[in-house]
Amino acid sequence: MTRRGREPSASGLPKLSASPTLPSEDPGLSRILAWPAYTVDAWQRSILFLDVLRQRGNAFLQHAEAKDPHVLSFDCDVMMDGREMARPVNYWLARVRNPAGHEPDPAKRPFMIVDPRAGHGPGIGGFKADSEIGVAMQAGHPCYFVGFRPEPEPGQTIEDILRALIAFVREVARRHPEAQGLPCSIGNCQAGWAVMMAAAIAPESFGPIMVAGSPLSYWAGQEHHAPMRYLGGLLGGSWMSAMAGDLGGGKFDGAHLVSNFEALNPANTLWSKQFNLWANVDQEADRYLSFERWWGGHVMLNAGEMQFIVDQLFVGNRLATSELTLSDGTAVDLRAIRSPIVIFCSRGDDITPPAQALSWVSDLYADVRDMRAHGQTVVYAVHDSIGHLGIFVSAQVARKEHREFASNMDLIDILPPGLYEAALRPKTDEPGEEFVDGDYVLRFESRVVADLAAHGGTSEEDERRFAAVRRVSEANLALYRQFAQPLIRASLLPAQADWLRQLHPSRMSYAAFSDRNPFMAWIAQLAEQIHTSRLPVSDDNPGRQAERQLSSLMERVLDGVRDARDTASEKLFQAVYGSVVLQAILGIEKGGAPPRNRPGMSHEHRVLVERAIADLRARIPAGGEAEAIIRALIHVGMADRTTDERSFAVLRRIREQYGVKAMPLAQFKAMVRDQLFMLLLDQEAALAAIPAILSRQPGAAPRALELIKAVSRATGTSTAEAQRRLERVIGLFKGATALPAPKGKA
């Protein structure tokens, strides 16, 4: 009998097998003999783990010393430098180079991806091939990227950044005069509210907008979930942000924001991330290092920028109800945006839960009729489980949600005003799915504003509590500025501010394992030797099983600590700021006027709406073949309150039939909106006018009827009401052929 247990390795050194057992021995002895192999494997993994941390530390230092660091996996060329603007900013606009052989279609709208400046450096939107940039380029769109440098320009403000974003999107549009539609702007996380604010003050410059994981209604939420919204109140407001800016010598360290994010999930921060690397160091090293290169790329903000964000947005919550006014008097009203807005969020996101991403709609609008009166289209999609970073970096999300949104942005652009939920389903053999590219069918289902309450919101009690936080924050900030700020600014030297930044735990955790630490020199040498004589064990080794059990226990313990902390924080917040005594002292009366008024329709806007209604009513009998087709299709579609990309594929044929140049997308979009409003205004009159409209163009009715039937075949009719409407429309079109041609027509 031959004993197994050592085999020659590629390097000629003996190699322990994954299961050093004797075929004739009992399982108990095999398990005992497996432990020495596990001990060697665990020791080797520990050295390799430390070596990965060493590489991470070196990459962190190299990234910090780079002139314009980013983590884009695509080559790009800078088109505009924000430092050259009248009000300099540290942002830049770059054109992303397409891979060889994949030139963009000049007729397709360009995409502009704006990365968040929330503590990390730029590049997360193009971090992988399967990313927002990647899927847009695969769909044939020219792509641009907005990044930023680690250091802000002296004196730059959030308002300066908004003006820069407007200048960037106008430059992108200027470079693509043949494109059908204005650029699509994608804002990730904090870049989302920046893009929305920019579009609110320059709505004519923006095409469709997609905000991914972006907080817009900062007080909203659900009890026992996403406790980060309580942090401002528990800290006494924004005075600590002001102090952090003063201790930073007029700059706010983005590492503070990173630390706040990490504190949300201590199990992952303190244990799981490191354990997963150690347990799978042979496979995970490259992925871990590439992500950590971005996660550790801390950037700076001017203290004034951070103070604006905290005071006006996160604590003040002035964006969601149009209370925000810029220094030049410009009102930032999200209702002014005329482009479709796509909101992508997730129930698994603790940083931007669905309530904070969606509730601004219910903050601004009483119902869908109000949205239509303002001409606003909002599409939202709620993922079931993906975390905050997964919204941007997950290849699975990029290949599904982002790819479908990018491929169907023209469809989204022509959706009539209203509220829609986007749903994806795998492609099947249903009628019309041969028109669909990719593996999924994107469907838009009409919703009402009240439906958003299912994802959370703001109760009357929460409104009073957070209003109390806002007033306490204003008082504490005034006290700090009056008494403490002058002392700190007078006593702090620039060198001390830099010293404090370098000693931040988020930076020290990287630098401590770099080659600056002389202890790490022998780690690199050992790791090199281990790579040539690696002795891994199999996953069923008892040691591997035990470490997984220990890891699971640690995660449960840390999750329990987090849950206890979050519960205590929520109860403390509610007890302190829900106190009727404190609220009364702050002038917040229970049962009185709401602490935050919802904006109503202004008199000027009401007059404009009334004029538009009168104009639409007068134009109901007007139009031609295209108007009749669109009116009929909308009437049928209103029965199901849904539409999908199959119908748009056929609508695209309508545009092609009339010539794309003769009917640009903007004109087609205006036509769709007008026909919807006519049907909502007077459905019977709008339908009754169809035969007369068609009779003005001899031969139009049969041709138009074939297009109507083509759309019906492509999408089917899912309800009896939709079928009834379709039959009525067919009757109207057939009736038009029996009408005598107008005089003077052949």
Give the helix/strand layout.
Layout: E1 6-8, E2 14-16, H1 27-65, E3 76-81, E4 91-96, E5 111-114, H2 132-138, E6 143-148, H3 158-174, E7 184-188, H4 190-201, E8 209-212, H5 231-234, H6 239-247, E9 251-253, H7 254-264, H8 266-279, H9 281-295, E10 300-302, H10 303-314, E11 341-346, H11 354-364, H12 368-373, E12 377-383, H13 390-393, H14 395-407, H15 409-414, E13 418-426, E14 440-447, H16 460-491, H17 494-502, H18 505-511, H19 521-532, H20 542-577, H21 580-585, H22 603-618, H23 625-640, E15 642-644, H24 645-658, H25 665-681, H26 683-688, H27 690-695, H28 700-715, H29 720-738
Parallel strand pairs: 5-6, 5-7, 7-8, 8-11, 11-12, 12-13
Antiparallel strand pairs: 1-2, 3-4, 4-6, 9-10, 13-14, 14-15
Helix pairs in contact: 1-9, 1-19, 2-14, 3-4, 6-10, 6-16, 8-9, 8-20, 23-25, 23-28, 23-29, 24-28, 28-29
Report on this model:
With 746 residues, the chain is an alpha/beta fold. It is built from 29 helices and 15 strands. It has an 11-stranded mixed β-sheet with strand order 3-4-6-5-7-8-11-12-13-14-15. Strands 1-2 form a two-stranded antiparallel sheet. Strands 9-10 form a two-stranded antiparallel sheet. It starts with 5 loop residues before the first strand and ends in an 8-residue tail after the last helix. The N terminus is likely disordered.
